[in-house]
Specification:
Length: 116
């Protein structure tokens, strides 16, 4: 008796993955084994970088806050310490946005801190 294989399902499975690798370079887009490996690697990068994105945005916000506070003769560390001391609860994302887009509002926050 001949071996039974589900050719329709196998082809559908391959077509589905090749559709996902459509824009890849070279054989990564149309050779099944190469495309499968490329797609699996891309998925692992995507998983990893969803976490790295959070780190890189936080460091970007810190850089922006630091640059803005230096205009007022203060560094990032001193600024955040004074915010905590005065119980001003504003996260870094909002502070960075204020520093970039609303400098007057950011200056008001800096002026509200104790000058010690």
């Amino acid at each position: 008796m001949p071996r039974s294989v589900n050719k329709v399902a196998a082809r559908t499975k391959r077509k589905k993955l090749l559709k996902k690798t459509k824009g890849y370079f070279g054989a990564r887009k149309n050779v099944w084994t190469v495309a499968k490996n490329a797609w699996e690697k891309a998925q692992s990068y995507s998983y990893r970088d969803r976490r790295n994105k959070k780190r890189s945005f936080r460091s970007l916000w810190i850089l922006r806050i630091n640059a803005a506070t230096r205009q007022y003769n203060m560094n990032y560390s001193q600024f955040m310490g004074k915010l905590n001391k005065n119980n001003i609860k504003i996260n870094r994302k909002v502070l960075a946005d204020l520093a970039m887009n609303e400098p007057k509002a950011f200056k008001a926050i800096v002026d509200s801190l104790d000058k010690k």
